[in-house]
Amino acid sequence: MAPPADPAALAADMRARLREGAVPGRAETEKRYLRSGLEHVGVPLPAMRALVKAVLRAHPGLSRDQAVRTAEELWARPVHEERSLALLLLEGCADRLEPADTALLERLLRECATWAHVDLLAPFVAGRLLLRRPEVAADALRWAADDAQWVRRGGLLSFLLPVRREADFARWFPVFAEAADPLLGDTRFFVRKAIGWVLREGTKHHPGTVADWLAPRLDRLSGLTLREAARRLPDDQRAGLLSAHAALNPRGGRAGVSGR
Known about the structure:
single chain, mainly alpha, 0% strand
C-alpha cells in the first residue's frame, strides 16, 4: 500500500477495503442481534483485525498523531464496522498513546452505542494504556463511577488486562475491587457482567484472593456477577459460593440473568 497523503486518505482506503470483506446477510443479522441503530456492513471481527494488521504492517512508522486522526475519521460516520476499525487501530497503536489521550477515549466511550464497541475500547486500548501509564487509573476510576452505563462498563473493563496478568494482579486488583464494591448494587446487566468478567480473569492466577473477596459480599452480589466471577474457580469452591449465595438470596439468586 502506498503511503497515504493524510489520515483521511488512509481512512478512506480502509473503508473501501472493509467493504470487500462483507458477508451476504451478516449485516442484517448482526444489526438485529446488537439492537443497533448504526449502519452495518456485515464484516466479521477477524477480518477487521486482519485488515488493521495489514495496514500497520504497511505503515510501520505510523505516528501517534496519524493513528489518532485516522481513528477519528473512521469513528465519525455511524457505521458499526468503521467504528470497530477505529478502535482496532487504536488497539494496534496503544503503545503510542499518551495519558492525555484519555480525553479521546472518554469521548468515544460516551458515544458508544453498544457493548461490542466498549469491549474493544476499554480492555484493549484503555487497559493497555493503564499498564504503561498507571497515572491514568484516575480516569478509569472516574469512568467506573459514572452513571452512564457504557462509560461505567468501560471504566470497569479498563482493569481487565491488569487484573488478568499474574505479575500485575497484586497492584491492580485492590484498585479494581475498590471501584467495583460500591457498584454491586447496580441492576444493569452489562455493569453486573463487567464486574464478573474482570473477577473471572483474576481467578486465572489468583482464585483464592478473588474467592475471599466474593465471600463476604454474597448478600450484595447479583447471581449474574457471581456466576461469571466463579466460572473458573475449583468445583468445590464455586459450589460453596453459589450455595451460600442462594441461601442468602432465596428469591434473588438468579438476579441479572436477563439481558442481551
